[in-house]
């Protein structure tokens, strides 16, 4: 039998062991999360992580600074109901192109993306892959199985 081939009973046993382990870990966390020693250790771990990765965060900020400014500009014009100004003003053309390049307007028709989009239609917010990707890329999907 190949090591990757499991019987139905073995699969059920593996899944039940995994489920009981997840339940036990969650109960343990719920019990200790409010204790002072856990809070101190957790804060120390977070502080150590911050100091060890400070340069990485700074580099990531420098690399994504233009995109962050473009998104900020987009939200400013969206909040004030002046999205058409974002595409029409020549001073923001580079920001619009950067947002378009990063798929910020992915739900629009591609032919409309070449010219200024129709202001009467709803505009896209950042895709769900943009949200949380910063921390997701740092720590991976830790809680994907639960």
Written description of the protein model:
- The protein is an all-alpha fold and 146 residues long.
- Among the domains are: 31-63; 64-114, no CATH class.
- It has 8 helices and no strands.
- The protein has helices spanning 8-32, 36-52, 54-63, 65-79, 83-88, 93-101, 110-114, 133-139.
- Helix 4 (65-79) crosses helix 6.
- The longest helix is centred in the N-terminal third of the chain and has 25 residues, at 8-32.
- It starts with 7 loop residues before the first helix and ends in a 7-residue tail after the last helix.
Short description:
This protein is mainly alpha-helical and 146 residues long.
N- to C-terminal distance: 30 Å
Largest sheet: none
Overall outline: elongated
Mean pLDDT: 77
- Count of alpha/pi helices: 8
Query: Uncertain segments of ≥5 residues (pLDDT<50)?
Result: 108-139, 141-146
Order of helices and strands: HHHHHHHH
| DSSP summary, beta strand count | 0
Helix fraction, binned, reads 55-70%
The percentage of residues in β strands lies in under 5%
Given helix and strand content, the structural type is mainly alpha
Radius of gyration: 24 Å
């Amino acid at each position: 039998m190949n090591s990757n081939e499991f019987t139905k009973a073995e699969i059920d046993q593996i899944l039940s062991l995994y489920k009981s382990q997840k339940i036990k870990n969650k109960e343990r966390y719920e019990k200790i999360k409010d204790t002072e020693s856990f809070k101190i250790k957790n804060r120390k771990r977070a502080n150590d992580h911050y100091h060890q990765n400070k340069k990485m965060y700074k580099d990531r900020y420098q690399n994504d600074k233009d995109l962050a400014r473009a998104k900020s500009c987009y939200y400013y014009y969206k909040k004030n109901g002046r999205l058409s100004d974002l595409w029409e003003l020549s001073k923001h053309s580079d920001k619009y192109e950067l947002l378009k390049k990063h798929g910020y307007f992915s739900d629009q028709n591609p032919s409309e993306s070449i010219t200024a989009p129709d202001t009467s239609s709803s505009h896209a917010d950042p895709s769900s892959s943009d949200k949380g990707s910063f921390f997701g890329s740092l720590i991976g999907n830790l809680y994907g199985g639960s």
